[in-house]
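Q: Fold this one first, please.
A: Sequence and structure below.
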Amino acid sequence: MWIDTHCHLDAAEFAADRDPVREAAQRAGVTRCVIPSVHAAHWPQVAQLAQRHGDAYALGIHPLYVPQAQESDLLALDHALSERSGDPRLVAVGEIGLDFFVPELCTPPMRQRQWLFYRGQLGLAQKHGLPVILHVRRSADWLLKGLRQCPVVSGIAHAFNGSTQQAQAFVDRGFALGFGGTLTYERSLQLRRLACELPLSALVLETDAPDIPPQWLYQTAEQRALGATQGRNSPAELPRIAQVLADLRDLSLADLAVASCGNARRALPKLAGL
């Protein structure tokens, strides 16, 4: 069995075939998906999807949605977390974090606004005793600063692509590191090295579907110019992504499945009860 620790099954790209996509993943051995939300309007939908498919979900405000978010959304999140505190499928606050890659998010006022929402949501995770699922994009050091100021029980640094030192700093705080489609590209040398050097206990698997397609779904700019469409990632791709990691670490696929699922349950403890 596999746990996809990061799958946006609520995304518009799945509107036409959401249930068949989840069923295909189930047939591939993905018995559990964690569905993080990106803004307040999606909170009811991710909870409903998790219930329908026997999955798990997280509530939060993604940094890419901070520009249109209202500060009152933090109060709404506090209320939603309280209201759903008895739901075993609510496993984290997320997807939250900081994005210092997208140009329009890198102006000083927008960095400050991102920090306000990130720090506020860390406080809510601490208040409600929940882990966090972090968006890490050229922002690892600032995310770690926030965690030092406002420690949380545990979490996952999603789509991690930082340094060995940054990885260890997250691990020291009880975090697992999410690896997915980027690992499948032969040119991802630093990430592959990191995936091999880190303790196996630090790694969890994810797809970020429909985003971050693995190498076999990727279309180059030239191919797209000729009319090809970018391959849509899906949770059914997780076992094949896992095979890449297993080969890199010279592990059996079965051993990696056991380890990665155990790591996911430690990072998001409520998964163990599902």
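Q: Good. Now the second chain.
A: Here it is, same layout.
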Amino acid sequence: MNAFARIFSLLFFFLSVAGATETAQLVGTVRENRSRWNPFSPDNSMEANGKGSFKTTLRLSKTGGRNSDGIYALRFFADQDLRKVFKRGKKVGELVTGEDSASGGNIVFRVPSDGDYTIAFDPEKSSYSISPKVEEIEKISSLQINGFVHDEEGSTECFDGIRTRPAEKWDEWVPSHEMSKNSDGSWSISLKLSATGGHEKNGVYQCLLSANNNGDWGYGGILGKPGKLAGGNGYESRVGHIEESAIVFRVSHDGVYTLTVWPEEYRFEFSPRVEFFQMMHFQVDGDSVPDPWNPSAPSHDMEPDGNGRWTKTLRLSKNGGGAGNGTYVMNFSIDGNWALDSIGFGGKWGKTWHSAPQEHNILFQVQEDGDYRVTLDPENGEFTFDPPVSPITEISSLQICGDFDQFAGDGKGGWNSLDPMHDMQTQDGRLFTKLLRLTGGKTYNYRFACNRSGWGWSLADYPYDGYRSLASHGSPPPILFHCPRDGDYLFSADIVSGDYSARLIKHR
């Protein structure tokens, strides 16, 4: 080999290594943890096979999946990068990524029998395989619209004897959510909407589409691109990009609005027309700004830096924050409206996560009083602090709060999560427990708080996701426990799986 050939060969080698995928993540209902859709969770990592591809073997069941019918949904990520999401293409085994990923969906399939299935992913070839063979579901036989567009429907999660169902508004099996198929291949539905309707009674509506009564065969919207659908966006399975959101819009007049959808073309339209949000500006929310959780307050506004990023200078103190020890809670909002969902933290410091229900607020601590400049990069889903702060990214302690008799002395009727009386016990850092004496016949309200941070990072059962599992997004209502008889009850919470329970230990 001559010198020129040797140099060329080495250059090719280094370029190949530089562009190689180092890690891969498999997310979806094939995972049995509360972070099943989160690429930042180490529980979702795949095993490298030494050939530039990755694999994972999982136990799947004919009674598994979101609907307990053996139907599963999944997608892939490379290097824990939201911009390197891989969704299903037009053919079985084919994946799309990059700018094309919005027009791709989750891989949806049915298993023929209980057993171990190996799922392989090759990011360089944009391909995948599942072995033994499964039935991939390709045809859309029905389409549903779910969400706050159903003003008269319920908001309480329920159990149907087989599985936990989402609150009625978000339940893809409710007959009133079904869309009608038209002769041109489109689907449509007429909705009665109001200028005083929606989740916050201000005419702003949020919804998602599901296919075949499967919330994870979902379609959301793209902020700034009215009428454009993004595939693979169910209530729990949204990709996490800042711009990929639910379909969010405002109506200014009461009336009947017809939604028409062309799922194969990834587009939709309303008639009469509605107003869409454009993702024009961003805000900082939390206890680092006045009026902490009002995203429309002028004091929350960030300023553009001319390079696609947004910044704000915050005056912070080592004795500030909700706990008075320099610990602060923060997230970002879009266009001053919570209907677009907050931009929070998914598990990797410096990376944003825009995906209910397992996103949580950004927590950090400062050691010195001073001005701290926070910068948000919406395009790359990143945030930074200057000077740096101390990140709080793991659950190190858990508190249970509620209207229990023995918490009456905490100064806030049982809801003072900063009081040590609420601390739970753990031996492995995963399962937390607390023994409480209860009175039979009473109904108790409770929820969990993390790291004695006030309510900046809390866990409760979210009513819209369709799982009996702890979630960390927003401020869901408390969990209810109807106490059957006097006694000592052991309350438990598993922060990995999301399981929680209350079990009678001793009669009184």
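Q: Anything worth noting on the second one?
A: The radius of gyration is 24 Å.
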